[in-house]
Amino acid sequence: MRIPGFIMEVEALEPTISAFGQLKDYLSNPEVWSGWLQTTIQILLALLIGRVVSKLAQKALERLMVVRERAPLRLDQRRTKTIGKLLNNIVTYTINFILILIILGQFGINLAPVLAGAGVLGLAIGFGAQSLVKDIITGFFIIFEDQFGVGDVIQTGAFKGTVEEIGLRVTRVRTATGEVHILPNGSIQQVTNFSIYNSLAIVDVPVANGDNLEKIIALISKAAADAYDSIPNLTKPPEVLGLQTLGAAESAIRVTAECKPNTQGSVERDIKRIIKDHLDRYKEQMNAEG
User: Fold this and answer.
1) What is the model's pTM?
2) Euclidean distance between CA atoms 96 and 116, whole angstroms
3) Residues of the chain where predicted confidence (pLDDT) is lower than 70
4) Which helix (H) or strand (E) element contains residue 41?
5) Sheet with 199-208, side-by-side order of all strands
6) On the CB side of 89, how many CA atoms lie within 13 Å of its CA?
7) Per the count of CB atoms within 10 A, which of 20, 24, 145, 251 is most buried?
8) Which residue segments constitute the domains of the chain, with CATH numbers given?
9) What is the pLDDT of residue 255?
10) What is the top-level taxon of the source organism (predicted)?
């Protein structure tokens, strides 16, 4: 009775014994160890190359941020760090994704289903959030290229005002009368920035045709020189161009002045006030002499 039972136990252990034998043959095969060694070397080489590429990309991004700091449109330090981290993360994730695909390929895994699944997922997300993706991409380039910054006066479409906030998705613009417009970045097609370069103030001074034109021009020139000394927003002395318009009863003498960005309104008012004061004193002097 015990012998048949022993035979049955041996027969039951045969699959295990066979498996151990196959494992022993597999581990003792030099070609197997050679293949594993080759795979390990290729994986380590891929990781090393990925690390080198990542370091080079980081150095290139740091240099790019330094170049942007020296550009005419400068990014503030906080925004520079934000953009640098964002780009660095994108590069790191891309390199890591490629490394994962390379490592999976070394283990004999078919990458076609993985890539197909990632493509379908990305396509689904793209179709489901087209406007959101457009807003984010446009916002990224607005920040990266520094097309305008917080505090700049811009005009986009029918909206003109001061930029209060720039985000990856929306931009807030406050108009001169106090309204705040929230604009999706994807809807910003064209922007006029009034705060980059110096502005030009233009003042036309009406003069009666009976007045002495040369005397009035000399008086306005003196007022323009005084205006440069008293108006801090002027970057150059105002220039008297001369006679601009000629009418039946009066003419106009044009004065132009270069001033700081987006200050031409207040500069024009100050120049008008100073010229008027000089003209009023001149008229009082003429009346006193007459």
Assistant:
1) 0.56
2) 18
3) 1-29, 32-33, 35, 65-86, 89, 111, 114-115, 118, 120-129, 290
4) helix 30-69
5) 199-208, 250-259, 239-246
6) 6
7) 251
8) 2-128 (1.10.287.1260), 144-193 (2.30.30.60), 199-289 (3.30.70.100)
9) 94
10) Bacteria
- Taking the C-alpha atoms of residue 154 and residue 192, their distance in angstroms, rounded to an integer, is 5
How far is residue 43's CA from residue 100's CA, in Å, rounded to a whole number? 10
Alpha-carbon distance 52 to 143, whole Å?
A: 28
pLDDT value of position 10 = 45
Instruction: Choose among 153, 172, 149: nearest CA to 162.
Output: 153
The CA distance from 80 to 97, in Å, is 26
- Alpha-carbon distance 68 to 74, whole Å? 6
Q: Look up residue 50 and give its two tokens.
A: 């990925």
Name the phi and psi angles at 137, rounded to 5.
Answer: -65, -45
CA distances from 148 to 81, 186, 259, 260 (A): 17, 15, 20, 17
Burial class (CB in 10 A: 0-12, 13-18, 19+), 168: middle
pLDDT at 54: 81
Query: Would you call 24 helix, strand, or coil by DSSP?
Result: helix
